[in-house]
Amino acid sequence: IVRIENVSKRYQLGEQEVVALHDVSVAIEAGEFAALAGPSGSGKTTLLNMIGCIDVATSGRVIIDGRDVTGRNPDELADLRAHTLGFIFQTFNLLPVLSAEENVEYPLINIQSVPRAERRKRVAYFLDMVGLGRFAKHRPGQLSGGQRQRVAIARALATHPKIVLADEPTANLDHASGEGILQLMKQINDHQGTTFIFSTHDARVMAMANRLIRISDGAIVGEEVNP
Amino acid sequence: IVRIENVSKRYQLGEQEVVALHDVSVAIEAGEFAALAGPSGSGKTTLLNMIGCIDVATSGRVIIDGRDVTGRNPDELADLRAHTLGFIFQTFNLLPVLSAEENVEYPLINIQSVPRAERRKRVAYFLDMVGLGRFAKHRPGQLSGGQRQRVAIARALATHPKIVLADEPTANLDHASGEGILQLMKQINDHQGTTFIFSTHDARVMAMANRLIRISDGAIVGEEVNP
Ligand SMILES: Nc1ncnc2c1ncn2[C@@H]1O[C@H](COP(=O)(O)OP(=O)(O)OP(=O)(O)O)[C@@H](O)[C@H]1O
Ligand SMILES: Nc1ncnc2c1ncn2[C@@H]1O[C@H](COP(=O)(O)OP(=O)(O)OP(=O)(O)O)[C@@H](O)[C@H]1O
Ligand SMILES: [Mg+2]
Ligand SMILES: [Mg+2]
Prior knowledge:
Two copies of one chain form a homodimer. Chain A is α/β, with parallel strands linked by helices. The first copy, chain A, has seven helices and ten strands.
C-alpha cells in the first residue's frame, strides 16, 4: 500500500549539502503495523513526510495506495491526504484558536460524505478513547503537552483513514496513557485493517510492530519481520 | 534551594474551574537530582513553571534560592531567571530566526559578566556535548525534533545556572542520545553541584534521581528518597 523506490532527500545549506535520506527503498503491505526506528536526526520524519505527501523527494518514486504521487499537483495530493492518510505530527500542529473537539472535527468537515451527526459522534468517541472526554472545550494553550499529543492522535484517527502515519505518538505520554493509545491503535489495525506506520523511540511500539525498519544517517540499515 | 508552600493553581474555563495544582508543598535542597513523575495532565509543567518564575500561583508561596518570588515585579523575576535558572521547555521554545548556536548564545548575552570569547567557547562546548557540533548553523526549521530538543538543552546548560528545570528533556530522543544527555547532566550535578529538577515519563531519569516526587491530578501523592 506504500512503496518507496530509491528515494533521496537533499537540502542545500549555504555552502554545504545535507543528505537527509539516501537511496531509501521500502515496501509496506496493507494492514501492517510497521515501525521506523533510528537515532535522532536519522531521517524518520523526513521519510514519513514523503509518505504523507507533505514533502517532495529530491529523487526516486513514492507510490501510495497504487498511485504514483511523484510530480502530482497540490490538489491531487490534498485529496489523497484528506481521504487516505491520517498524520500524527511530531510537533502536533494543532490549530490554536480551535478547541480540542473542533481540532478533531476539522479534517472530517473536508470529507463531504460524513454528515454532521456522524462527525459529532466520531469526535466524542475518539476524544473519549484517548482519555480527553472532559477536555473537549479546552484550546491547545489550555492543555498539557501530552493532552495536545492525544488531540493530534484523535484527529488522525477520526477520519478512519486507510493509512495512519504516527511520528513519535507516545513521546509526551506517561507509560499508562501510552499503553492505552497503542492498544487502541492495535485494535483499529486488527478490526479495520488500517495500515500503521510509526516513527518511534519507544521500545513497546517496536515490540508490537510486525515489521521493524531501522534507519541511520538517512539510510535503511536493517529490517526485521515479526508476523 | 527551592521551597513550594501550599501552592495552588486554578483556571477559570467558561462556567467551570480547572484545578491544575492543589495545595502542593515541596522542598528541594541544593545539589539534588530530583524527578517529578505522574500521568499526562497531572500538573508537572504547571509546577515547573512556578519554580521557573514564568507562571504565578493562585495561592501559596514560592521561594527560590532564599528569595520569595510571590508578588515580585517582572524585572526582579527576569533577573532571577537570567542568573539562577535554566529552563528546558517541553515545547523547546527556540527562536526560529536564529541558528542553533545563536539560540544557545542568546541567554548568555544577557549576562554581562560573560565576555564574548568565553560565550563562543561555551556555545561550542555544549553543542558538541549534545552531539550537534555539525548542526550549529542550522535554524530550528532545518533540524529534527530531537535535534531541537538538544538545542534547548544546550541553551539551558550554557549559562551555568544554579538550578536547571528540565521538562521531559528526553521525550524526543532515542535511547543512546538520551543516555548521553543524562550522563552529561549527572556529571554537571556531581562536579558543579547544580540542582536538577526534571518532569519526566522516562524510567531512566526516575532511576537516576535521588528524589522522586509523584504527582497525580494536581496533588503530590508520594515521595521516595534514594541517596
Ligand atoms: N530544511 C532542512 N535543511 C537542512 N537539513 C535539514 C532540513 N530539515 C531536516 N534536516 C536534517 O535532516 C536530517 C533528518 O531529519 P529528520 O527530522 O527526518 O530526523 P528524525 O529521524 O525524525 O529525528 P528525531 O528522532 O530527532 O525526530 C536531520 O539531520 C536534520 O538536521
Ligand atoms: N490555561 C489553562 N486553562 C485551563 N486548564 C489548563 C490550562 N493550562 C493547563 N491546564 C490544565 O492543567 C492540567 C495540568 O497541566 P500540566 O501541563 O501541568 O500537565 P503535565 O503534568 O505537564 O502533563 P504532560 O505530562 O502531558 O505534559 C491539565 O489537565 C491541563 O488541561
Ligand atoms: Mg522526527
Ligand atoms: Mg507537561
